[in-house]
Write a structure and sequence with these properties.
elongated; Trna Endonuclease, Chain: A, domain 1; single chain
Length: 132
């Protein structure tokens, strides 16, 4: 049984790696500090003068996994393959969706992206329309 979102995320990435038409990437974010002046102390510590935090990575609420699925489309582009953007917000059985996450998913869905909240491997396959 999957016990954490991180573990489930890894299992989903491994599963989706079996599908040549799917490319998914893990969204990483972080926070750090910068300063007007950084002083290195003899003991190895750093002293930040006038520090301020900064965020790196993707916007707030961005899904855990994102990428694309290649699909073959209709008559106007007969036989051409095109990518469809995909995004998966991975949650444990009891994980709760934050408002920012909900808004990002709704925005992506409104543009025709394949996305959703997934709590299992089957949820991920369903969200990307990989099961019949």
């Amino acid at each position: 049984m999957v016990t954490s979102e991180h573990e489930l995320q890894n299992k989903i990435r491994l599963l989706l790696g079996r599908y040549p038409e799917v490319r998914m990437f893990r969204g990483n974010v972080g926070q750090g500090w910068t300063a007007k002046r950084v002083e290195r102390r003899p003991d190895g510590d750093l002293l930040l003068h006038e520090p301020r935090p900064f965020s790196t990575g993707l916007p707030e609420g961005w899904p855990d996994l994102f990428g694309f699925r290649v699909v073959t489309i209709g008559p106007e582009y007969i036989g051409q393959q095109m990518p469809v953007f995909c995004a998966l917000e991975v949650k444990s059985d009891h994980g709760r969706l934050r408002e920012a996450q909900k808004n990002v998913l709704l925005g992506l869905q409104s543009c025709g992206c394949l996305c959703g909240v997934v709590r299992s491997l089957n949820d991920a396959l369903d969200a990307l329309m990989l099961q019949s």
